[in-house]
Amino acid sequence: MTPPPPHHREPGDDAGEEPTASELLGAALGAAARRAGLDPDSDAPTGRVIWQVIGGWRGILESVLPLLAFVVIYTATHELLWALGISVGVAALFTVVRVATKSPPVAALSGLVAAVIAAGLPLFTGNAADQFVVGFVTNIAYGAAFLISAVVRWPLIGVISGFLMEDGLQWRQDAHKRRVFFWLSIAWAALFLARLAVQLPFYWSGDIAALGTLKIVMGIPFFAALLAGTWLVVRRLYPRSRTDAEPPAE
């Protein structure tokens, strides 16, 4: 078994200490990032890595089509029940396809759950714009988490990157890394809060077509662009050594 690199620190390694909450959180987030496709040991170009993280064309369609169906149907007919039913039906169809093709159904299932939850509020209130409320709450939660973590000097990007790159919390001893992770976390907070700032006026005015279009445009494209930039910066902070990057000579 290959020993971990010298800078690697597993949670609770020091003299049998219990892992702290930040270590447990970082380890969980780092592992989740690896499962999503952010593998620091991979030689794949950044574009391919990000494409894998968002799930390729299937992931894009699973994310966009349920919302697009809702916007198009409601704008054309103003029939809320039909629009919500078709939106949830499209999400359910993607889940069935994943199960039938024996591919991991987690992404489609999460999309289906999100579609069902998002449909619940407008069914209760009768206001079509309330279909977007769950997205607003999600953006508030993520934006606040990234912003607060940066303000209290525990930027989430640093916590995730440290364990993803097998650095644990050692990055906190490096002023340059702390500064970079602070601004990266601020950038992620800005993304989520910008969505709110741009979309909420259209929610209040009840402009479903504009609101849906903005949500799609500010969704995967903005997410993928910022993720690519973050990945490039993190890889630059943790360059692979020559011995890691190249196989030994025969």
Automatic annotation (TrEMBL):
Pfam families: DUF3159. Residues 1-21 are annotated as: Disordered. Keywords: Membrane, Transmembrane, Transmembrane helix. InterPro entries: UCP010219 (IPR016566). The chain crosses the membrane at residues 55-74, 80-99, 106-124, 136-160, 180-204, 216-234. This is DUF3159 domain-containing protein. It comes from Microbacterium ulmi.
